[in-house]
Structure to design on (189 residues):
């Protein structure tokens, strides 16, 4: 199977932070790794809502080896989303540039769905690595070369990475772990 993600191409958001205007769209993050499929031995697929009229972006991605699918078709329902995630080899995704720049430690709930399904994830570092235990099931990258190395690293022992993904989901992101911490943080636990 392919490494996949379900995402928005444009969100139409930018954030002003001091004198900087930070991009809140996934488009620029994916364009920064557009050549990645040529450097890894696994297929990369985006379930992304690129407007059909954005032919230049579509052509660029396809010409560089990305697979493109319609997210409404493959993940437009809860059952479809679950089947798409569980039918994937794992997740590969960039983060919104605003998260990369500000480093809040953000991890997508989508990524947690992949982890819970025992699918390893290779995602762009938003500072989360500093707050999570090291795991072969969740690997972070900052550069295209690091992304390629991480994907190849997962492939070196995929069964171990898949087990590590599920273990991380159970030990860090499970409701029984998160909810008591949340309740204590708001003074209810």
């Amino acid at each position: 199977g392919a490494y996949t993600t379900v995402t928005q191409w444009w969100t139409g958001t930018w954030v002003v932070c001091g004198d900087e205007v930070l991009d809140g769209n996934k488009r620029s993050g994916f364009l920064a790794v557009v050549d990645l499929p040529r450097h890894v031995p696994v297929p990369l697929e985006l379930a992304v809502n690129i407007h059909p009229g954005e032919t230049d972006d579509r052509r660029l991605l396809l010409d560089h080896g990305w697979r493109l699918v319609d997210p409404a078709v493959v993940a437009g329902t809860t059952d479809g989303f679950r089947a798409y995630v569980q039918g994937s080899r794992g997740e590969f995704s960039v983060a919104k540039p605003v998260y990369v720049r500000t480093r809040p430690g953000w991890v997508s709930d989508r990524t947690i769905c992949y982890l819970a399904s025992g699918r390893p994830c290779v995602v762009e570092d938003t500072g989360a690595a500093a707050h999570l235990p090291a795991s072969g099931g969740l690997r972070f990258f900052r550069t295209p070369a690091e992304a390629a190395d991480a994907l190849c690293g997962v492939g070196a022992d995929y069964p171990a990475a898949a087990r590590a993904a599920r273990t991380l989901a159970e030990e860090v992101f499970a409701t029984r772990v998160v909810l008591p911490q949340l309740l204590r943080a708001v003074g209810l636990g």
